């Protein structure tokens, strides 16, 4: 892949656009990054994007920024990481700067309140779409254990109020044990 000024502008514009028009955090921006960089541009393959997502989620910090760093670095080293981070961080910085100037007007606005409620529904739909797509892909590959872990984690979180940290640790241990036993066979 030839990396010229057009490539870097496209990389910046993509992350800027995704960050500017995505509400709901990393769990929403990750599938959109997947669609942009895997499906549309074909710069990264599906498995690699899943690996980058797993690393972004397990690293400290905002998932969207972590994913931007990893995708940018994968595509073009340190310069790519800097460009994608700048493209990801700039829109929220600008938006929050504008909002902070007129905070009291936004805080008391009934219209803003309803817009945010509508956006919450949209975010929930996007996250549900990601989960369903992930489950379908895993079942096509006949990987049942990750689906069982997802369902178990949902039940443990939603119904039993178990802390997410314990679920991550338990999922990692289960995955490690499964990987170990699959290698010794």
Summed up:
The chain is an all-alpha fold and 185 residues long.
Radius of gyration: 19 Å
Molecular shape: globular
* Poorly predicted sequence stretches spanning 5 or more consecutive residues: none
Count of distinct strands: 0
The helix-strand sequence is HHHHHHHH
- Largest sheet, described in full? none
Mean pLDDT: 86
Strand-residue fraction?
under 5%
Q: In whole angstroms, how far apart are the ends? A: 39 Å
> How many separate helices?
8
Q: Considering DSSP H and I runs of 4 or more, what fraction of the residues is helical?
A: over 70%
Content-based structural category: mainly alpha
3D structure, described in words:
The chain has helices at 5-20, 26-40, 46-58, 63-101, 103-107, 110-140, 144-158, 164-184. By secondary structure, it is mostly helical. The chain has a domain at 5-102. The mean pLDDT is 86.
Element layout with pairings:
Layout: H1 5-20, H2 26-40, H3 46-58, H4 63-101, H5 103-107, H6 110-140, H7 144-158, H8 164-184
Helix pairs in contact: 1-2, 1-4, 2-4, 3-4, 7-8
Descriptive tags:
185 residues; mainly alpha; 8 helices; globular
